[in-house]
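S1.2 Input.
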Amino acid sequence: MKTKVPTIVFCATRQKDISEAEISINSIREIYPDIEIILFTNIESYTNPRVNSVHILKNQQNNFLDKISTLLEVKRKRILFLDGDTFLIKNIDELFALLNNFDLAVAHAPNRWTFKINEVPDSFPEFNTGVLLLNKNYKIRRLLKNWYNDYKKYLDQKVDFPSKDQPSFRKCLFLSKIRFSVLTPEYNCRFTMGAMVSHNVKLLHGRTNDFSKIKKSINDAPINQWSDEPKLRWIKYE
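S1.3 Output.
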């Protein structure tokens, strides 16, 4: 089955978010010069020749709800949403192929869970919402609306989660009927928190002054004969 490439979507409502996203966008263009990239922002004057279209976020809240609003507002079916502090270092065509079989693909959060939710067993972890691969069908739209409303409820109650929007996402995903795939750390490598990886790391997620240094070294390891890729290893960059 031929895989249709998704649209890559960013949300950046502050100048520092824009600056981060531009680094991520540049890394994507090095590997995917023709992929569609859309950026949602509140900066009406913003332009970027490496972005296909810039949209003004309608329902801006100046918090993590803006991420969910972006996903609700974007008019695309197949989406890869990325936080601005990401950096693509290798081709990820095989990641896109997951959308042929699943509604959603998302990686475990390194902390597993940060807030006790009675409706959710501890065995069901939090997921990191900085890398989300979505088929935006009716089930996903319902998940996004539930996630937005649940997280907004907590914000209105002045509840501040350590992991912000992720506890609400965890709850809404658990209560949904969505068929999803769990990404390995190679596709959402939280390199500042530490991760056990195998094969090539392809998508970095975290803040650093030098992504190029990490890109050069993160996949340095003895090669597995059966995979022709780097062996199992623990990585962490300060």
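S1.4 Remarks. The radius of gyration is 17 Å.
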